[in-house]
Amino acid sequence: MGELILKMEGISKSFPGVQALKDVSLNVYEGEAMALLGENGAGKSTLMKVLTGIYKRDTGTVTFDGRQVEYANARAAAEDGISIIHQELNLIPHMKIYENVFLGREIKGAGGRLDKQAMINETKRLLDQINVDLDPNREVYGLSIAMQQMVEIAKALSLEAKIIVMDEPTGALPDEEVESLFAIVRELKQKKKGIIYITHRLKEVFEICERATVFRDGERIDEVMVSDLTNDSLVNMMVGRELTDQFPYVEGDPDGDVLLEVKGLTNKFVKNASFRLRAGQILGVAGLAGAGRTELAKTIYGVYGHESGEIILKGQPVKISDPHDAIEKGIFYVSEDRKGDGVILDADVRTNMTLASLHKLISHTRIDRKKEKEICEKYREDLQVRTPSIAQLVRNLSGGNQQKVVLAKALMSEPDVLILDEPTRGIDVGAKKEIYQLANKLKQEGKAILLISSEMPEVLGVSDRILVMYEGEIKGELSREEATQEKIMSTMMS
Question: Could you give the CA distance from residue 241 to residue 213 in angstroms, rounded to a whole number?
Fold first, then answer.
């Protein structure tokens, strides 16, 4: 066992109408990764904000490196050796790597001038420490998410961090880049860093973490050695109940009407894409990062134009010039980038839900506020959006509930075809199951769903048929019965 370097005890934090943390504790040991787990809204992010001075705790103590601390802000915490790498990375795209690493802490030479070469050299040394071959002079723009995370880790090392918080570090990574991140985590542990590892991908806990602390509804349930856990026991601790049938499946209608047909769709992203999507079915789309899955969806949705091919909706060729046009014709795309494209974080739940359907709520040139409230409350109840009220800012909701708000916005537009791009990214196992159940309900109502996911078990678990994409091409289509992970990979490479 490594030395205990962080001890949070008796931490409580409340907001108006909400007790976010109730007398919780957390221990972090040098040279170990502590998984911090729980459903969305369990209190994990709140605790990290208390730790790094973003929120002031109501009660409790924080002991770091043998002394009690309370930080005024996240910068003070970072300068003291506690660094957090957020799910939404905080790099400035059009600045160079070394400029990002030393932003606000620039090295200066004689006469107070910036010592550019010293910063380049130090950035190179830090990147070498984690075996990352990047030119410090390169702009961050254009780096993969994985490489951006490596820059964030180099930045944390430049601060001589003893504790590094990783918030959903693999949430936006393709599978082939996850192992690279794990290798870095292992190196950091060898350097006696303490890692707080927040994730919803439970298999990662067993691969990279020594201990797990589980939160539920703002309370700490337990701290356990990962070696003493199973996947089922961990899920049970998180949700407080047995979560059987992780991927609930309802058989689709094999003879449903073809609602969407794509023929030979081609642009700079996709090549000669053709498929049919039937009412009452979920058509999964599998492929590695860069396969063109999202680009195919956005081409259908009118974000990108196409050079050739056609889109046929309910048997009629259609021209979709932009997303508004797609929505009018009965297609709605739920983006993989929930916070960037899905919601307005600083608007309330009501505004976000009705954003795409306001024209349906206008009476005598004014929005019918009574009707708007009624329909929002209905979707809030139907989708089980956990919020004190529809006047709550979306920023204050958990990831799973933000996703439900996005889905409510989509469903209010009454689409025939719903495109779900990574619909469960960054949300917990309980909320995932609720979204799968919602998709099944929509399927039974005769909707047609195109489901894009990087999680192979998800595609296999909920789809009626699966399209396999590779480098912009649809390489094949598999039935539910014949689809396996191995079959998908072999189809991809054929």
Answer: 17
**Does residue 245 sit within a domain?**
no
pLDDT digits (tens, 9 = 90+) for 43-52: 898 999 999 9
Confidence at residue 147, expressed as pLDDT on a 0 to 100 scale: 81
Compute the distance between CA of residue 397 and CA of residue 427 in angstroms, rounded to an integer. 12
Q: Which residue has the tokens 């961050």?
A: 140
Q: Select from 371, 404, 437 the last residue of a domain.
A: 404
Task: Give the C-alpha separation, 88 to 96, whole Å.
Answer: 18
Contact 152, 119 (CB under 8 A): no
Task: Report if residue 167 sits inside a domain.
Answer: yes
Q: How many helices (H) and strands (E) does the chain have?
A: 16, 22
Note whether 84 and 167 are within 8 A (CB): yes
267 lies in the same domain as 393: no
Q: Please name the helix (run of DSSP H) or strand (run of DSSP E) that holds residue 485, with its range, or none.
A: helix 485-492
Shared domain for 170 and 222, answered yes or no, is yes
Residue 290 in this model has a pLDDT that exceeds 80: no
User: 326 and 437: one domain?
Assistant: yes
Q: Contact at 8 Å (CB) between 327 and 413?
A: yes
Short-list 3, 39, 44, CA closest to 26? 44
Amino acid letter, 42: A
Q: Average pLDDT, stretch 411-418?
A: 92
Instruction: Judge whether 478 and 466 are in contact, CB under 8 Å.
Output: yes
Residue 171 has pLDDT above 80, yes or no: no
> Do 287 and 387 fall within a single domain?
no
In Å, how far are 231, 381, 441 from 243, measured between CA atoms?
Answer: 11, 22, 19
Residue 88 is predicted with a pLDDT of 63
Domain membership of residue 283 as a residue range: 258-330+415-492
Residue type for position 455: E
Q: How far apart are CA 309 and CA 285, in angstroms?
A: 19
Q: Mean pLDDT throughout 285-289? A: 83
Same domain, 233 and 277: no
Query: Rounded mean pLDDT of 283-308?
Result: 90
The structure's pTM equals: 0.64
In a domain, 336, yes or no: no
Question: Do 272 and 204 share a structural domain?
Answer: no
The average pLDDT across 313-320 equals 94
Instruction: Spell out a b/e string for 162-191, using b for 16 or more CB atoms within 10 Å of the CB, else e.
Output: bbbbbbbbbbbbbeebbebbbebbeebbee
Is residue 247 in a domain? no
Output Rg (C-alpha) for the chain, integer angstroms.
Answer: 24
Number of domains in the chain: 3
169-194 mean pLDDT: 81
Q: Average of pLDDT values for 363-384?
A: 87
Nearest CA-CA partner of 406 in 416, 417, 419:
419
Q: Are residues 228 and 280 in the same domain?
A: no
